[in-house]
Amino acid sequence: MWGAILGNLLVLPGLGMLLGGLKNGRKYFDRDAAGVNSTMMSLSVAGLVLPTIFELLHEAQNKQGYKLNISDKSLDEYSLGIAGVLIVVYILSLIFSFTSKPAQKEKLAIENKGPVENDPDEKKQWTLSKSLLVMAGSTLFLIYMSDLLVGSVQHVIQNFHVSETFLGIILIPLLSDVAEHVVGVQMAYKNKMDLSMSISLESATQIALFVAPVLVFISFFLGKKMTLFFSPFEVVILGLSVYVINQISEDGESNWLEGAQLVVVYIIAAIGFYLL
Length: 276
Hints:
Elements: H1 2-24, E1 27-28, H2 31-61, H3 73-111, H4 128-151, H5 153-160, H6 164-176, H7 178-189, H8 193-222, H9 232-249, E2 253-254, H10 256-275
Helix pairs in contact: 1-6, 1-7, 1-8, 1-9, 1-10, 2-3, 2-8, 2-9, 3-8, 6-10, 7-8, 9-10
């Protein structure tokens, strides 16, 4: 989960801005849409950070000392409450996104000081049945490949001497999200920075505000009791990543230097997880 969020916040927009900027120069994207997604990611940081702070303070009050493997009924209840709130907020963001789409193209045209050109590929649309068939086939293939990937984790750890943390947060998410990253970078390279930013930020928002909370509820039904408590290093990296992408996207412009900065932040985080 953390790796997928970091990849969508740093790698995808970073490479898109870098390669797209080198080819097309300074580009503009929908500042309002990026602002909404940035705000939602900031909210998700609060939802993911507060359980960690809560548990650290709770352990300090009980004089238990800090530990990662915890069993705390109060943390379980707090995680469920936050998960429910995050899901509600995500649903509200979808409603807002669908109802505000018609005005985004006109807004982008004003910021670009000219009309937004129609995409020549828009006419080459798939039918609904073909789209559903391709999606179903891709999902089944992804499930099969994920099973193979998980089964080879221990072999990789033993032979290449990498930690489970680095493998789970850096390597596996990069491999599993490679198709999404390629599409996002390709859109930026084709001078479609607005679509590239939408892919990256909305994917990160979906994981943080919907996928993670849903997994919390599912784990409680299965008796596994997954909480929203994470290590302080993971929480800090996520907070800094959201801050950096917010700073870069708030003006609605992008260039190759900003893309390089995002990639550098990801490399710094990867080194930290490797040494952790």
